[in-house]
Design goal:
This protein has 394 residues and is of the alpha/beta class. It has three domains: 104 residues, no CATH class; 196 residues, Rossmann fold, CATH 3.40.50.450; 50 residues, Winged helix-like DNA-binding domain superfamily/Winged helix DNA-binding domain (Arc Repressor Mutant, subunit A, Orthogonal Bundle), CATH 1.10.10.10. It has 17 helices and twelve strands. Strands 1-2-6-5-4-3-7-8-9 form a nine-stranded mixed beta sheet, sandwiched between helices. The chain has a three-stranded antiparallel beta sheet with strand order 10-12-11. The chain starts with 12 loop residues before the first helix and ends with a strand.
């Protein structure tokens, strides 16, 4: 099976035929990735599939599959034109197809490798392919779209440490943990990769428009979906296999029991990758998914250094020392200072004003003043429902 690299420049006819063949394969209703791979194996290339007789196609699949292959999608020409326009808009974008020499090798080992990857970012070379993605040490970071304040801080600080240690953080650019993980990696000066569930001519959520630009400047945005694809609900669980597939391991920050992050963790385990989870309060719904993963064998982690030590790859001595030292610097505990009595009374679970008043015995005015002071200093956060929670450095 072979395919040619699609170049973001003026294309020879052969490359245009190749692009049209792959897009037609991707867009033909009723042809999933499994059937497409069988067809590619049988006929050698995407364009060759559409030159076959109905009889030859029936030997590979059903009558319905043969009919689907021989029926050109109505919007094919529009998709080809828009893809060519998108590619011509800059040298920071490319389309890589299954079988291309530049297709990420890590994805060839998953159960359902994408047929096509649309890529945008600084890791795309002038030759029109992602030359350096395979050389990066990648770690997936996933979690809740509605994390607790502590969960969001954990995601940002862990990712910053990974970035400083030379690791590339892979996530899904969703609200919450994903966004914080990308932000942290950028703060640490590292690369980051966002695997999205839309076409690359769209940014979802729109709130992350600026973040998307900054990710493209320091890494890649990747999609298996053709340009123009809207944020369909079914696309997001599907892209999770790419997030886990690109990475040496997956760290789950916070997740409810029905979270899509658990899908990513399950896929990582199926791929033989390490799964890590940060524990939380037994009373927090956002911690139950992590606790379930830990019960099932995920490694409990309390610091970024825990992950780095577990995933330590055969680096040179100097690189190895640099990675460990970066983790230690970020994880260092500041000089001990007397603990604020209200923080001591609060503990690390969310507490109401009434509960804190019962624990401290302070008058309401004094308690509210102290809560405001701690909130302004970043030591606590105010939650919905009149609750307060302590914030700790990750």
């Amino acid at each position: 099976m072979s395919a040619q690299r699609v170049m973001p420049m003026a294309m020879p006819t052969a490359d245009m035929d190749e692009l049209q063949g792959w897009l037609r394969l991707l867009l033909t209703p009723g042809v999933g990735n499994d059937s497409a791979r069988k067809l590619l194996t049988a006929f050698g290339s995407a364009p060759a599939i559409f030159e076959q007789s109905a009889a030859a196609l029936r030997e590979i699949g059903s009558e319905r599959l043969a009919h689907a292959i021989q029926t050109e999608p109505e919007d094919l020409k529009r998709h080809v034109a828009s893809t060519l326009d998108w590619l011509a808009a800059g040298e920071d974008r490319c389309v890589v197809t299954l079988g291309d020499a530049h297709y990420p090798a890590a994805l060839l080992n998953i159960n359902d490798p994408p047929l096509i990857l649309f890529m945008l970012g600084s890791l795309v070379s002038k030759a029109g392919a992602s030359e350096t993605l395979g050389a990066l040490n990648c770690l997936a970071m996933v979690g809740s779209r509605n994390p607790t304040p502590q969960g969001e801080i954990n995601a940002r600080q862990f990712a910053q440490t990974f970035g400083e240690a030379g690791w590339c953080v892979v996530s899904g650019m969703a609200l919450g943990v994903d966004g914080a993980a990308h932000e942290g990696a950028l703060m640490g000066g590292g690369h980051t990769v966002a695997v999205v569930g839309t076409g690359l001519d769209r940014v979802y959520p729109r709130k992350h428009l600026d973040l998307a630009h900054r990710i493209a400047e320091r890494g890649l945005i990747i999609s298996e979906f053709p340009l123009g694809t809207p944020p369909l609900t079914s696309n997001f669980p599907r892209r999770n296999r790419i997030i886990s597939g690109l990475s040496h391991g997956t760290l789950v920050i916070e997740a409810a029991l029905q979270s899509g992050s658990l899908i990513t963790a399950r896929l990582a385990a199926e791929h033989g990758k390490e799964v890590f989870a940060i524990p939380g309060s037994i009373h927090s719904p956002q911690s139950r998914g992590c606790h379930q993963l830990i019960k099932q064998g995920a490694k409990l982690v309390e610091s970024a250094q825990d992950v780095l030590e577990e995933l330590r790859l055969p680096l040179s001595f100097a690189e190895d020392e640099k990675a460990v030292e970066a983790a230690k610097v970020n994880d260092m505990v500041p000089t001990e200072k007397p603990e604020h009595p209200l923080l001591k009374a609060m503990g690390f679970d969310a507490a109401s004003l009434d509960a804190l008043q019962a624990r401290t015995g302070w008058p309401t005015a004094q308690l509210q003043a102290q809560l405001l002071e701690l909130e302004l200093s970043g030591d606590i956060a105010r939650l919905p429902g009149g609750l307060f929670v302590r914030i700790a450095s990750a």
